[in-house]
Amino acid sequence: MFSRVIFMDSVQSTTQVELTNQAKRPLNNPPFSHKVVNYTIPVTPYVNKYYLNTSTGCVGAYSQKLIPIPPSTDPPRPIVKIDYAVAPFYCELGCGGNNTNEFDITQYQFGICQAQDICLCNPGYYGDQCQFLTCSCVHGYCDIPNVCICQPADGWTGARCETPLCTK
C-alpha cells in the first residue's frame, strides 16, 4: 500500500511536490482499519492546471530513501507531471475576452471571476460578463475603452468625434 503526500510552496504556487510513501503495514487492517476508497474527479471543463514534481520511485517505509515502486527495479528518476484540480468556482460564460492564465480559469482579458458566475470587470469594461466597453464617442466607435475612432469620411474629428470637419 502507498500513500501520497503533496507539498506546495505557497497558496499562489502553480507547482506541487509529490512524494509517494510506502506504508509499513496494510493500513486497511487492524489496528488502523482505514477504509481504502477510490478518489474520482468529476468530468468537468472547469479545472485549474498545475505542475506536479514527482518521481518514478517512492520513499521506502524502513529506509526513508527513494526506492523503486515494486515490482519495478528501475532506479527512481524525477519527473514533472501536469495535473488538474476542479476549480472551486467559475464563471460559465467567462468574464470578457479569453482566459489569460492557463493555471487559473478565473482570469480573463476584461475581468476576473470573483465567485460562482460573478465577474469583477477591469476599468473600462462593464456588463454581467464584462462584455461591453465604455465609449464616450459622439460620432465614432471604440476598439479599446474610451479611445474614440473617428471616421473622417463621415465628417467628424476630435477626441470624442464631436467636431465637424466642415462647418457649412
From TrEMBL:
Residues 119-130 form the EGF-like domain. This is EGF-like domain-containing protein. It comes from Tegillarca granosa.
